[in-house]
User: Fold these one by one.
Assistant:
Number 1:
Amino acid sequence: MDKFISNIVVASKIDDFQIVINKGQNDNIDTYMRFLVYEEGNEVFDPTNNKSLGKLEVPKGFFKVQHIQDNMTV
């Protein structure tokens, strides 16, 4: 069964290849998990009816768990 963990955000950028997220062992992060990290972009509108399609999610890359602490993960 897949686990759903909400409100995961990048807490810190270590370098171009490592980040710290605000969830850890206390939040059920496991060593096998991978994350798609994206930046929230501009709102996009349908050119035919001008309705909002939502904010664009700009992919930054896939990250895998390297090190888990109680409340954060690298």
Note: The longest strand covers residues 52-64.
Number 2:
Amino acid sequence: MIPKGWRKIGANLDRPESVQVGPDGTLYTSHRGHGVCQIDPDGTQTLLAPMAEYGGTALLPNGIARLEDGSFLIANISDAGGIHHLKDGQIRPYLTELDGAPMPPVNFVTTDDTGRVWFSVSSRMRPRHLAYRRRVKDGFVGVIEKGQARIVVDGLHYTNEVRPDLANGWLYVSETFSQKISRFAISPDLKAGPKETFAQLPKGAFVDGIALDGRGGLYVACIVSNEVFHVSATGQQTLIASDRNDAWVDEVEAALDAGTMNRSHFDRTPGGVLRNVSSVALRGQPPQELVCGALLADYLVGIPL
């Protein structure tokens, strides 16, 4: 049963992990193999590219970033890794090496107000599930500026979505297995200051997607616990939506404590509508709806604000 006020958006989506909202309310979401699916305000769905492969495997889009020209950058989280560019129905490699080595699986990609590209790598470990541990902290955040890519912040605890808020001088970072959002003061030349904890989420709330609220706070999507929070500029947390299953949260936490957590703990979730909610985007001016993407759903979820 769908909670009152919630609505399902779209159908037959394949791993709609990341979602973006265009100025006219058009939705764009990651779609396995095809990169991006567009959902028009009238509900029409369009895959923006034919099935694509890289490194011998189907492209596995995680984060997506819509550029000013209407094309997209795609974070490929398959073992082949890299950032890819979708334009005019074609998907081509965009950044496949960093510091002379192949790019690992990339979790997320976004842009800032100047057009610079930011990206996150959750872990350098292969396979990636070996990083589903309390103590593995080898994720990083990088930036591409004037065609050059470099690491800005390293040593993170499974880096997920990142949001540069350069107007206020901050870079916000999800650290999934610390279950927290960290932030770094960012100088005009994009050097990061010491790490601060902006929000420590509750037990089981493995923070994934984050979206700036325009007031110094964030909306936060948490996999495993299937919860969406708002964190104010002062750090106050408000639960916006929940499909939490306490028994499932306890099982996953126990596996993490035992060092046995693996893909099965992300590839299934008991019941609910949010289905491992992984991203959030604001729709409307002023925002009237929170649109959520999810790892295990074949639809998006709209939640009124």
Note: The helical segments are 246-258.
